[in-house]
Each structure stands twice: as structure tokens, then as C-alpha cells.
Please model this.
Amino acid sequence: MAEAMNESETQETDSDSNWISLNVGGKVFLTTLSTLTNKEPNCMLAKMFSQKSLIKPSCLRDGSYLIDRSSQYFEPIINYLRHGQLIRDDGLSLDGILEEARFFGIESLIPRLEELISISHNADNMPLTRRDVVSSIIQTAYVSELRFQGVNLTGADLSKLDLRNINFKFACLSRCKLNFANLNYCCLERADLSYANLENAQLLSVKGSCANMEGANLQGCNFEDPSGVSKCVLEGANLKGACLEGSNMAGVNLRVANLKNANLKNCNLRAAILAGADLERCNLSGSDLQEANLRGANFKDAELELMLTPLHMSQAIR
Model:
């Protein structure tokens, strides 16, 4: 009987000694010795609490071992050692967990975290979709400025949307579908709209200096503000090979723009500023250039048939 009691007490003592209290960054974690040593026997935690350890951490009065690390990043580490699964709260940085895994030498977890971080970074670079844009518009008050500056919207279908006053500066809108979209008063400065479809879009008072619109379809677009208060600015824009046929571009500022091989057939370019623009091999057949500023523009091999108004020498064509 006495022997049985002694054996029972020994088992309880062994069980009690197997539990370890860790104070990590002020938060106490209660775990077992087997958790710290079995899954990753060569990690720092296993070495700290092995019988032959020479690097055991300081022990506080309550018996817990003090480890000076972040508790929020340590929690996924200890849970991984418990059951082999990586579980983290939403918003907890994977980079922070990876740093802890490297510090404690949890070798089996490191490649998994590196893979998740790589996937996360790739997802961050993925283009936004129509749903993303619509959601942002709905959630933004009408009086607030909506900014998509520098955002990747490559290939997004934004056709027929009301996108007025949005800041798209430096944004990538290459090959976007923007046909029938309302882009009035938008900022498109240095945005990439190459090969985008903007057919019949509204572009009143757009600021598009140095925008890249190479190969874009701008057929039937309206650039003219009826009030005449502000003008569309496409100064220095790249419109090489773009289709602007039938567009209303009265008063548009196209100073030093690149319009090589562009289709400007039947366009309204009254009072437009084309000073220094490159119009080489540009099709201007049937266009109205009355009072347009053409000083220093390059008209080499441009098609000028069926012009609605004759070009005057005062417009300084070379």
C-alpha cells in the first residue's frame, strides 16, 4: 500500500515538473517541457530547457522563466510547437512571426512563413477589379476626395462608371475598359492608359499632363467643358497611334504632345493648343482647327484633306 502511494506521488511529481511557465514580454504562457523539446529538438527553446542546458533564462519569484521577446509574435510560435499548425490573429504581421521563428530556430516553420509572405506580397501587387473600385466609391462620401494614385488597375472593366473627380495620378490603367465612363475632372497626370478603351467617355477638364495614352481608343470622346471655365490639359501626353476620331477636343491643351500616327479624323479641335506637338503621319482629315495654336507643330506627312476651315499662316505650321 505504501509502495503504491509512493509510486502515485512520484508520477504526480513528474507530471508537475513537466509543466513550465514562460513570461514572454510580460505575458505568461503555460506549456509543457515536451512541447518545447519534442517537435523542434534543435531549436533554442528546446536547448534552454534540456537537462544539460547552459543557457536557461532567468527565473522569476513566481517560478516563471523570463524571455524578453514580443508576446504577440511568440504566441503563434508556441501554438505551432503544440500542434504543428500555424494559427495567427488577423492583422498580425507574418514578417514579425518569421523574425521570431528565426530567432528561436524553428526551422520547419521558416519556409512555410516565407512562402506565405511571398504569396501575400504578390497579392498586394495584383490589379484592383471593378468590384474593388465600386466598393471604394460606395464607401466614400461624395464630398470626399477618392484617391487611386499609383494604384494598379490593369485590365479592369470600369466601363459606364461615374468616376468623376477621382485622382488617378501615376495609376496604371493600361488596357482598362473605360468606354462610356464619366471621367470629368479626374487627375490622370502621368497615368498609364496605354491601349485602354475610352470610347465615348466624358473627359471634361481632365488633367492628363504627360499621361501615356499610346494606342488608346478615345473615339467619340467629349473633352469640351460647355461652361468654358476650365480646359482639358494633355500637355506632353503620349497619344502615339491613338484613335480620337470624331472626338470633341475644342480648347484642349495638347502642347508638345506626341500624336504620331494618331487618328484625329473629323475631330473638333477649335482653339486647341497644339504648339510644338508632333503630328507626323497624323490623320486630320475633316477636322476643325479654327483658331487652333499650331506654332512649331510637326505636320510631316500628315493627312489634311477635307479640312473644315483652311489653315492660316498665322498658325505657324512648319
